[in-house]
Amino acid sequence: MMSSTGSFMTRLSDVARDVEACLETLLSNEAHSGEMARPARLISAMRHAALGGGKRLRPFLTIETARLFSRSGAGPLRTGSAIELLHCYSLVHDDLPSMDDDDLRRGRPTVHKAFDEATAILAGDALQTLAFEVLADPATDADGSVRADLVLGLARASGLGGMVGGQQLDLAAEGRYGVAELGENEIRLLQMMKTGALLTFSVQAGAILGRADQERRQALRIYGRALGAAFQVADDILDREASAESLGKRTGKDLEKGKATLVDHLGMEGAKRECRRLVSEAQEALGVFGPAAETLREAVRFVAEREV
Amino acid sequence: MMSSTGSFMTRLSDVARDVEACLETLLSNEAHSGEMARPARLISAMRHAALGGGKRLRPFLTIETARLFSRSGAGPLRTGSAIELLHCYSLVHDDLPSMDDDDLRRGRPTVHKAFDEATAILAGDALQTLAFEVLADPATDADGSVRADLVLGLARASGLGGMVGGQQLDLAAEGRYGVAELGENEIRLLQMMKTGALLTFSVQAGAILGRADQERRQALRIYGRALGAAFQVADDILDREASAESLGKRTGKDLEKGKATLVDHLGMEGAKRECRRLVSEAQEALGVFGPAAETLREAVRFVAEREV
């Protein structure tokens, strides 16, 4: 049971270390069960994209949610790592010249800068595939229908109606395909798709592994959605406030690209108020779990306040 | 039971029509079960990539293999369509300017030409995701472990150690990353990864749906591999012989890019002999199924002789 921010941060970094080790194994040359070759340049690019950094927030949510149901070990770790692989693929493709055209990510060269554009596209493609491979593998859960549910949930959160669809709307919001003035509700939808859906699924995945009943599944759904929304409002606030130095990537980008954010609609103070409201909503949804959910309660506060 | 090429062609086009209808449903705006928006431009690009053409050879193999085990209907059709979605995603990404830089595909503009590069990348991404979503959906098979097996098989055939890895090796074979002189065995490995693995899985998927025993699974594995290899040798022969008009895409490309093919190593006559050998190997592997496998026997002949 975590109660102080200090022990929360310890727990977060412990999980990040486990996830790093799991990803290292999944992306090593020896780990593969098939007979085919694994092209060295492609693996290097995948490793560049997935290893050595990040808070591993999504796996943390999966692992901590599974712990509510006394599930721990390889299943939640592999599931969280698969979600992280999916997240990393999306970053590689979002950074491409024809998309957001970013040269830096977490202070390091993006994959198409460190390698080349073709390799970056293929590395993203293969990271996506690997995410589904990991989920479908019997090592993740003995029960095939649990594995199929995980695959289905991840696919819905990350495809046309989720993350990828959100990225497409985001490009449109920059005015690439004609004038696009987004209202508050459209911004919320875009954000829910682009970022929120995968965060929400990170929580749901823990519930799937834990064979949660309907009541608990629903509580975690509300929690996950509010957390995802809080994450994005905090991101909008960060984008407006933070300096390039402290983040290791270019900021004020939304402003630069003329893209509307919730800060435009709600004002800075309104956005911060909305963020606090979402934190409360998420925390209250966890009532059914009692003190066992303290880490998840801290997680949403952490997400909302991470640099704000 | 098919015995003449006429009835084989009828069967092939009947299945292609069923697959087209299935893909149309999967890519319609109404079909989605989630609550999220489906961005119109992205769906249009996915439809451009996946609808309106092709022999649908991979779904045909899945559906005809499943029929050996008296499985027909939605399961094999959805599985075959998922493999086709995966195949279409690979074509969209392979055509990109930073990859093969093709303007035409089946005589129509490629996705990045008809839309734009960012949309083409995202459409490919979402087609891959949709393939896994379709396989993991209970509508494909009542048994969760069958669905998980299908996902696992498709992921292994199409990821780092399969199709995507093969594409990376193919780029390297053009000499992009330094001099690359491929020997005969390296060309075979590259081709097995890039094209063969997905064709082989198309057959295996039918065996998974049919709950095939080990003996039949092994026979179909040999069949699938020989068919995949025959497909690629025929492709190399085609690339050297066919004219741009008859294919609707640029040909002689391998030659143009200085890329070695099996025709270089075996000579034209040797390549044709190898192709015939592979057809025999594939057909003989089907012995255990007796006359019921006549369509699959015709399929490998069709693959090997399609334009040669």
TrEMBL record, chains A, B:
Classification via SUPFAM superfamilies: Terpenoid synthases (SSF48576)
Known cofactor(s): Mg(2+)
Family: Belongs to the FPP/GGPP synthase family.
One Pfam family linked to the record: polyprenyl_synt
Residue ranges that the Swiss-Prot or TrEMBL entry lists as coiled coil: none
Designated name of the protein: Polyprenyl synthetase family protein
InterPro entries reported in the protein's UniProt record: Isoprenoid_synthase_dom_sf, Polyprenyl_synt, Polyprenyl_synt_CS, Prenyl_diphosphate_synthase
CDD domains: Trans_IPPS_HT
Keywords from the named record: Isoprene biosynthesis, Magnesium, Metal-binding, Transferase
Keyword Magnesium appears in the UniProt entry: yes
